[in-house]
Amino acid sequence: MTTTLHGKRSTSASGTNTAVVTHGTIALRNLEAQIEGLEPNSTPVLSRVEERVWLIDLLALRGSILSSIADYERALELAHLLVRDAPTEAAAFLARARTHAVFHRFRDALDDLDVAERLGADTESVDRERAAVFQGLGRYEEASAIREEDARRCPSFESLGALSTLCAELGDTERAERLHAESVRRYRGVSPLPLATLDFQLGVMWMHEGQLERARDHLGAACRYVPAYALAQGHFAEVEAELCHFDLAIALLIPLAATSDDPDYAAQLARICADAGYPDDARYWRERAAARYDELIAVHPEAFADHAAEFWLAAGSDPRKALPLARMNLEIRKTPRACSLLSRAIAADEAAGAWCVAQPQPSQSATSAANERNMQ
Amino acid sequence: MSDHFSGPRALADPAADLTDLYAFPAPHNPQRLVVVMDVFGKAGPGAVFSDAVIYRFRFRRARIAATGPGAAFGVDPDEVGFDITFDVPGGDGTTLQRGRCRVPGGETVSFSTNDDRGGTGRGVRVFAGQRSEPFFLDVHTILESAETRKLAFKKVGSDTLYGTNVLSIVLELEWAELLGGGPIFAIVCETLRKGPRPVRIERLGRPEIKNVSMSFKTFDQVNRDLEIRDLYNSEDAFALLPDYVSAYRARLNANLSFWDSLDGKTDWPLDEGGNHPLTRLLLADFLVIDASKPFQETSYFEIERAMLADRPHASPGGRWLNEDVMDSIFTLYINGGNGPRINDGIDAPIAWSSNVFPYLAPPNPPKGQGS
């Protein structure tokens, strides 16, 4: 049985949220309308720092919903311009720190946060941003100290949701669910975007735990909140593939892979097509993903090292390319997932090396093809 | 867009973010009263109303309860409300929405957005859709004035909202029939989250209370670190909870005194309790209109100024779309009308509103596409 993605009313996976929220289509359309309304004014002459920060955050938000790397890049570009134009404004550095973190430039993000604090940003705001960076870096104790204190001092939708997300990443599933429910209970807004984001995080948590039905519930809820939530749709498709619902997974992924500038969807599609016995399709999407990963690694190596390494280990079938990326990823962030990725990359690289030693030296493309067969 | 960005929570959904309220007698029909609620400042062309929000106008009969330094309104406990709601637009990328206005007595007036004719019912006409932003101001010089503690207005300012659009709801109604008497009414608009128990998201009455009058924290010695506006937004305009009134009062006293100081003299001496003479009237945060008076171009706060001066008012009060309300507010706050009119350097919006329904000018083309 499969879960329908596009229900009418927005309800969280746990069924605890009965709040009426704006239809996801309207929310996304209005997010775009906000960006369209602010973007032409994104200059120091026409716009206040507050509005420029807002535009940067809106672009990053749209990037996260639609998996639009172009939006993330535009946000970073605007953040650099804002810091240039307003070098004494703490808000400018806070905004740039957030966009640096999106691109996994955690060191730069922490530096910007230090500057923001020196420029007078209030410590609590800066610490909340630091917690997000620490989480990205795998410095969970520091992140946890800030999140716990924030939630204790001011138990709000935002603080409890952030703590739920941290618990999810740490694998504390029971607490993550409990905090999620409590966070949603406190939500007073009408935008579905924050609720969708929270459900997405829990969906990913259950995926990592191997609890696919629960993952599907949360990811399905996220998609019901915002039908165009690409990241949630992509993960939902992954879960369906894990449950051997290959055709549904492929149907969900094709429009994402065809339109997104994020190669993750093409990478997933390549893997699932291969698993489902569609080698020609798998090859097509693999080449498409490979080309895009190469482009992105050239410009944003920190941001895409982990996903590119995952790709080269799986559908990309080139462990030699995966290994340096996995190493780079672990240098950037000391998370359990980064360690696991490197271990797998080393193992795959050694296996590929052993296989190569035993064979006459073929051309590189032949090696890839052979690796692909081997992987399959 | 006098109330835009008026609190962190309101930013979460722009379609629930109130920017302005206007109220004026219909220019060609004194039997009718017009109220306008604007949301979604700087709206891009694709902006639409939320299907999860109730857009509400609330009317209460009001009277002048006291004049002179203790000027105050008396407001009836009973009220008349108009709730406007919207459907989800079609799936073809259109911004067209079906809307409904629930009129007291149970009638529902249906309409389509962006239809200049609006929808009509008994004694009521409703329009909703994207229009040119009628409000105009130079935010940069306001912020600079607060930062430097000197008036920073230029002879020719820069309109922060030039060429931008808002989502507007225009309600024109037979006031004597639908509002049950009058002729003085207190009016607020609200956005509420739908549900069995609707939750207020924002409320709005007078222009620039939450921003120009309340947002600056630096002058407030009582609650310097408090972001007061979300709290303020969640309150019932006609029944402030006693718990936080002193916080609002302290903020207004401090900020109004700051504005008063900018011309180097004190036009609004504080009373023995440290209260600014305008604080009480401004905390009655609703537009007050006398529907029996004929339409006037400039009338904001005229009723209140007459009350303070202990004389009869001469205008309908309320707020007309084309009024340079920032100049009116700055003149009121800075010299109390005891000096020349304060000019912030912006004297007009990109397009004037007309005096026929739906009053507000059509939306401006997106920037970069010419006009």
Features:
heterodimer; A: 376 residues; mainly alpha; Serine Threonine Protein Phosphatase 5, Tetratricopeptide repeat; 19 helices; globular; disordered N terminus; disordered C terminus; B: 371 residues; alpha+beta; 8-stranded antiparallel sheet; 5-stranded antiparallel sheet; 8 helices
Q: Your description of this structure?
A:
The complex is a heterodimer of chains A (376) and B (371). By secondary structure, chain A is mainly alpha-helical. Among the domains of chain A are: 22-121, Serine Threonine Protein Phosphatase 5, Tetratricopeptide repeat (Alpha Horseshoe); 263-376, no CATH class. Chain A is built from 19 helices and no strands. In chain A, helix 2 (49-66) packs parallel to helix 4, helix 10 runs parallel beside helix 12 (230-242) and helix 15 packs antiparallel against helix 16 (301-313). Chain A is globular. Chain B has 371 residues and is α+β, with helices and mostly antiparallel strands. Chain B has one domain. Chain B has eight helices and 13 strands. Chain B has helices at residues 139-148, 175-178, 209-213, 229-233, 242-261, 279-283, 302-308, 325-335; strands at 18-26, 29-39, 53-66, 72-75, 80-86, 98-102, 108-112, 119-121, 124-132, 165-174, 184-193, 199-204, 287-290. In chain B, the strands form two sheets. In chain B, strands 3, 4, 5, 6, 7, 11, 12 and 13 form an eight-stranded antiparallel beta sheet that branches. Chain B has a five-stranded antiparallel beta sheet with strand order 1-2-10-9-8. In chain B, helix 5 (242-261) packs across helix 8. The radius of gyration of chain B is 20 Å and the shape is globular. Residues 1-11 of chain B have low confidence and may be disordered. The A-B interface holds A 18-23, 25-27, 29-30, 32-38, 40-41, 45-46, 48, 50-51, 54, 122, 188-191, 194 and B 5, 9, 11-16, 40-53, 88-89, 91, 139-140, 143, 158, 160, 164-165, 193-195, 199, 201, 225, 366-368.
